[in-house]
């Protein structure tokens, strides 16, 4: 069934698509790139379908082809990530000029097509030497990240007008350090909290380093989910409040208010926390929101689910995750709840008021198989309508990046989950635009025809 046209978004609204280095680039050791923690994780057999992460989608060699696909969409911007181990193979020390050369070429290619480069400096691929030294559990990693950020900005700031420091620190903390489902595979539960604090510190230090190197328009991408209590009882409401704190406000509050939301959690954090918070709360130009679905949370339960499909929660945690009953699920098993995006954006405005900078939706998308991916079209259409409603309710949202431009390596799930507007044949690396690509192209074209663009 054909959907009616989307309502008109505000003048200058930015339309984009996103990707990340580890998930797409491949060329594992090309031109001096060092290994990342994710490369080591894959080498230990932790990618469930055995996908070739060293090859990925071949973006390193085929970036011009993918930029042409972006141009075909009419996209205003491309959110990609810079591989830290490609630029600084040791995590600290000498900069690999050949690694920076690749991003120089990519930025030039984007600019030649009138597409705004929007690089993310950390999208989970920690240089392996730093991972082996403790990764984000170590305070030093934050300072090494700021050095790397400055090196990238010194090369690219003359052409890059929009910067993202870190992506989804909550997922890195929860899945990488607390539960061990992602690299580096640690299972520390609440002892993982230093990883959260050090990522936030790295962000603040990087904002300062970027600005010192001439960069402007800086934000970050934080995953957020509305958290719903599974029941009316105190155990369920208490479990939901705690999960909401550690999944949402543990990150947003220090970034936007300079305080942690819970004194007991803050007491578990290392270092001069008060001094660090002043750095973490370095003013942002904008704040990025990654949204996929809400979370239904109650008290502890033997039948609790994971943070994402297939990720088990230890029974000793003081909360448990439950199934959201919905008629539609993605191929990943995630519930489809478009109004959760509106609810989330409105809740951010209500919580932070004048402290909330302009927002961008830096990720939103879904996993569905097939070239005639009408369920993806329905998903994106419904979420864009929910986003428009949030804007109507007074939330200042300046742009939307769909995840993702092409199918890619979905971390520990490998090639089994397809989020792209463009299909990747993992045998030949042939790119084939899906029905959703053509739909998004038409959406962008219609929006630009009804509203003036700032580009």
TrEMBL record:
InterPro entries named among the record's database cross-references: GH, GH_1_N_CS, Glyco_hydro_1, Glyco_hydro_1_beta-glucosidase
Protein name according to UniProt: Beta-glucosidase
SUPFAM superfamilies per the UniProt record, alphabetical: (Trans)glycosidases
Source species: Streptomyces chengmaiensis
Annotated EC: 3.2.1.21
Reactions the enzyme catalyzes: Hydrolysis of terminal, non-reducing beta-D-glucosyl residues with release of beta-D-glucose
The family this protein is said to belong to: Belongs to the glycosyl hydrolase 1 family.
Domain of life of the organism encoding this protein: Bacteria
Pfam family, one: Glyco_hydro_1
Presence of the UniProt keyword S-adenosyl-L-methionine in the record: no
GO function term, MF aspect, one: beta-glucosidase activity
Keyword match Acyltransferase: no
